[in-house]
Design goal:
about 350 residues; alpha+beta; five-stranded mixed sheet; four-stranded mixed sheet; 15 strands; about 25% strand
């Protein structure tokens, strides 16, 4: 672990990273619950009662994940006051890359005019942004890199079935991107700890089977049955049951690691999957919903983008101040779950 010496005391301390800039971007196209009634058999009451979602943003035409990642990244860079020459690591969290390969990170590196720096994607679905923050933090702690750009970007609605047949998935998801710049901390602020988990035996409760190498020759012309594997599948009941257990566990893990109580934390920013999940987690932890930030009603489930978008909005609304303790927490496909304890 890299150690640094404070100028005032000369005492060595562990180097850690801090979030120095954030930004987000969502597509211009807004899809309300009422709009969905024209596409499938559903009702505004059914969607809102089931998920808490009132509207979401969908990409349109050729708009792709990289097109959302770019403006979000620029805003984070502007807030942090960094130039393209400063960035030496790019991590993009996404399950809806523009192409099967390479990842969005390679496109973003080029779009931003960065040097030939390290760039890669993370495919941990809804937990991917916290996973990516953890990875960037480790690189900065070791001294290998000094300025990391971490982005969650999704244009996943291009993969959903927007008909009555795909209704259970289609009403939940939206598109967007959120970004953060991480640099070494110069004070008490920073990423205090991160906690990452996976339970692969349950992966088929929330997955998209194709395209992948497990099936037959992928270059054959798709039949209707084959095409169905290229749509997400979710066992909503099982996902809900697991999420309401894993969220409190991983939040408590972050608290315990840093000797914090729930009262010490100013705000918990969870992955925005379903308002009922967030409400259930708050109830299990014995705290009010004012301790949790929720904006799912405006954006739906934006998977890897949901936490950074929520972080940006909470900051813009004045809900985050210098010195505040925050917890980021996620649960998603894999199953994966994760948390990060942060002092702002």
């Amino acid at each position: 672990m890299k150690l640094e010496q404070t100028e005032s005391t000369g005492v060595a301390r562990m180097r850690k990273s801090a979030i120095k800039g954030i930004g987000y971007h969502v597509p211009a196209q807004v899809i309300t619950n009422h709009d969905l009634i024209d596409l499938m058999e559903t009702s505004e009451e059914w969607i809102k009662t089931r998920s808490g979602i009132e509207e979401r943003h969908w990409v349109k035409g050729d708009e792709a994940a990289s097109d959302l990642a770019f403006p979000a990244s620029k805003r984070a860079m502007d807030m942090a006051g960094v130039s393209p020459e400063d960035i030496d690591l790019v991590i993009v969290a996404t399950i809806s890359a523009d192409y099967f390969f390479p990842g969005v990170s390679a496109q973003l590196q080029d779009m931003l005019g960065l040097r030939n720096v390290a760039a890669f994607d993370i495919r941990a679905a809804c937990s991917a942004f916290v996973y990516s923050i953890s990875i960037a933090d480790q690189f900065i702690r070791t001294g290998m890199y000094n300025t990391a750009l971490v982005v969650g970007a999704e244009a996943q609605t291009k993969f959903i079935n927007k008909s009555t047949e795909g209704r259970d998935i289609a009403v939940l998801f939206g598109d967007g991107a959120g970004a953060a710049i991480l640099q070494p901390s110069i004070d008490e602020s920073g990423i205090l700890s991160t906690h990452l988990h996976c339970q692969g035996k349950d992966m088929k409760n929330l997955w998209m089977e194709g395209p992948g190498s497990s099936g037959s020759n992928q270059i054959n012309k798709l039949t209707i049955e084959q095409a169905k594997t290229y749509e997400p599948y979710m066992n909503g009941r099982e996902v809900f049951k697991n999420a309401v257990v894993r969220f409190p566990e991983v939040i408590q893990e972050a608290l315990d690691k840093n000797n914090l109580s729930i009262d010490d934390v100013s705000l918990i920013i969870p992955h925005q999957a379903n308002l009922r999940i967030i409400q259930s987690v708050a109830k299990r932890m014995g705290v009010g919903m004012d301790k949790f930030y929720a904006n799912i009603q405006k954006y739906g489930n934006t998977t890897a983008a949901s936490i950074p978008i929520a972080l940006c909005e909470a900051f813009d609304e004045g809900k985050i101040k210098a010195g505040d303790y925050l917890i980021l927490a996620a649960f998603g496909a894999g199953y994966t779950w994760a948390s990060a304890a942060i002092r702002w």
